[in-house]
Write a structure and sequence with these properties.
CATH topology of the largest domain: Neuraminidase
Strand order of the largest sheet: 1-2-24-23-22
Number of domains: 2
Number of helices: 6
Strand content: 25-35%
Bound molecules: heme C, calcium ion
Largest sheet: 5 strands, antiparallel
Number of strands: 24
Radius of gyration: 23 Å
CATH class of the largest domain: Mainly Beta
Structural class: alpha+beta
């Protein structure tokens, strides 16, 4: 819940700081939930379930094909002949856009509440579309685990947000003492010790990569990347690979990102959230709201997109990101994907490409946390569209491509974890589009999702805190879950 509350503060604060948005709409923006109650509920019902006017929850639409533009047009121009008044005089285009988001959000929540997704207790067999599986607890005794990776001998490295790096043996038994030599982290709100990644060539070079919120002056902080080697129970040979200039650090305790991806060609990618400073995401002289790319030793690749731009942060690979906490590279095409938290509504999956602008905060499919509009713009020239987006937000946290052999039907699928919605989803991406299956729901917040060396899917859960893994189970007639594609 910390995420929601602090993001509310950041969202409204940054709106006031954005003169562009203010200039467009000098009148105070309306809370569309209140407009619904005051104006729309009398005909469509207080819960949107319909009264003398139709329901918004049943996926049956009379205007156009029921897409966002058709709904917006119905609200703006009305359908006067059939009893829907025109609201273009009462509501601005931005407010109408927020109303459409609010309708989608309410319908999405109603659908989720009514659906019978599996909430598997430990070791209960779930029959999903393609495989039966069960969820086994592997490591207990961790506190707010954030990142997870494997050493070649099967041991697990686990970051705890509070600042400790923990080691567990291949059976999941946690070493009582945290690993020594981890840098001091700024552990507040969403900040702390973040991701851990074992270099794919660890057996030869011994490098372990860590990211964390680094304390700056006057209670500011920014995401930093280091690498080190593990000797016994301590980190040695610590090297700082990415540290932005002190003047770019930001106060506030939201949106640090981050995940690591190695491309196997000598580069490492990582993401940093916009730190609650929305417009920074569009500014390449700032490190926040970006995906970065460095050489594995921290030097800047010569073919990075902004190396020749004066004042730019040279490690920037792409910009206009809000808070990307999931990053993954396709195992055969090498394409890079991120998932990022939207505001209220508008979580995104993006194909991340060199030098491109992913639009935040100029375009978004979400609205402000208080129900007021961010903007009516969901697209703009020179800005990339997400591959898909989620309204309501599910709070997308981590992604990985399934490459193991334990679940052959899932090979090449994108596995996605979420915090607020507490879901594990499986996405099939084809030329025809993206289909999604909710594999399970409601057994804790999924912070990190990692493909284990044994072909199982490992998940770092918060609340309750633990590491668990998804393993195949013989299909059984019992406890079949009504999992539905979305
Ligand atoms: C006086 C009653 C009334 C009020 C007030 C009203 N609506 Fe409607 N609305 C209707 C009726 C009736 C329809 C169905 C029109 C049709 O069948 O062509 C409708 C249709 C719609 C549609 C199109 C639905 C579809 O199936 O395509 C949307 C969207 C909508 N209303 C939103 C709103 C919003 C938002 C408000 C408040 C700002 C609102 N309505 C207020 C009566 C009302
Ligand atoms: Ca975007």
């Amino acid at each position: 819940m910390l995420l929601r509350l602090s993001a509310l503060v950041a969202g409204t604060g940054a709106l006031v700081a954005a003169p562009l948005l203010l200039a467009q709409a000098p009148a105070p923006k309306k809370d569309v939930a209140k407009v619904w109650t005051d104006v729309c509920a009398s005909c469509h019902g207080p819960t949107m379930a319909g009264a003398q006017a139709p329901s918004m929850l049943d996926d049956v639409w009379v205007s156009g094909n029921g897409d966002d533009a058709s709904l917006a047009a119905a609200i703006k121009n009305g359908r006067v002949a059939t009893g829907m008044p025109a609201f273009g005089g009462l509501l601005s285009d931005e407010e109408i856009r927020a109303m459409v988001v609010y309708i989608r959000e309410t319908a999405g929540k109603a659908k989720a509440a009514g659906a019978g997704y599996a909430a598997p207790a430990a070791n209960v067999v779930v029959q999903s579309q393609k495989h039966a599986f069960k969820l086994e607890t592997v490591v207990e005794g961790v506190t707010a685990p954030w990142g997870l990776d494997f050493l070649p001998d099967g041991r697990m490295l686990i970051t705890e947000k509070g600042g400790a790096l923990r080691l567990a043996d291949a059976k999941g038994v946690l070493a009582p003492e945290p690993v020594q030599g981890v840098p001091a982290v700024w552990s507040k709100g969403q900040g702390g010790l973040l991701d851990v990644a074992v270099h794919p060539g660890y057996a030869k070079n011994g490098w372990i990569y860590l990211s964390y919120s680094d304390p700056g002056e006057n209670d500011s902080a920014m995401t930093v990347v280091v690498r080190a080697k593990l000797k016994g129970n301590a980190l040695t040979d610590l090297q700082t690979l990415f540290k932005a200039p002190a003047a770019t650090y930001r106060t506030g305790n939201v949106h640090f990102g981050t995940r690591f991806v190695f491309d196997g060609k000598g580069h490492v990618y990582f993401s940093i959230g916009e730190r609650g400073q929305q417009l920074d995401a569009q500014d390449v002289t700032r490190p926040n709201g970006k995906v970065h790319r460095i050489n594995e030793d921290g030097s800047i690749p010569k073919d990075n997109p902004f190396v020749d731009k004066a004042d730019a942060i040279k490690s920037i690979w792409s910009y206009g990101h809000r808070n990307p906490q999931g990053l993954a590279m396709h195992p055969t095409t090498g394409a890079l994907y991120d998932v990022e938290h939207g505001p209220r509504g508008g979580d995104e999956l993006n194909l991340v490409e060199k030098g491109k602008n992913y639009g935040w905060p100029v375009i978004t499919y979400g609205m402000n946390y208080n129900g007021t509009p961010m903007t009516d713009k969901t697209a703009a020239p020179g800005m990339e569209q997400p591959l898909t987006y989620w309204v309501p937000s599910i709070a997308v946290s981590s992604i990985g491509f399934y490459t193991g052999t334990k679940f052959p039907g899932w090979k090449g699928n994108l596995i996605l974890g979420s915090l607020a919605a507490q879901e594990l989803r499986r996405l099939e991406m084809t030329d025809a589009g993206i289909t999604q299956e909710v594999l399970f729901k409601n057994v804790g917040r999924l912070r990190d999702v990692v493909m284990g060396p044994d072909g199982a899917i490992y998940i770092a859960f918060n609340q309750p805190d633990r590491i668990a893994r998804l393993v195949p189970a013989p299909a059984s007639g019992t406890a079949a879950a009504a999992n539905q594609p979305k």
